[in-house]
Amino acid sequence: MSEPATKDDIERVIALMKDDVRESTERVIALMQEMFARVDQRFDTVDQRFEDLGARYDNQATRLDRQGALIQTGSRWTGRINGWSERVDSALEEKDRQIAQLAERIRKLEEGRA
Question: How far apart are CA 49 and CA 113, in angstroms?
Fold first, then answer.
């Protein structure tokens, strides 16, 4: 039969168990620190990607603003040109009408002398 455990035997087992628990705790802490470091690194990568994406959207917004300004400027220019061409067409039509009237008067005057 086995001998009963002595106080020293129990204290030795308790000391060994404490060492095992301490080592296990240290391993768990080390693993958790490593895991948190990896997660933090991933978050840094994700943050960088979002910053890159934000920069791309900012560049795109700048280009769209520039294109919008060009379209708006072109629209204004086209409106002004259309207004100018309408005025010129009206003025030319009026001149053509006046020339036709003068030509008709000259023809009548020449017929009266003949």
Answer: 94
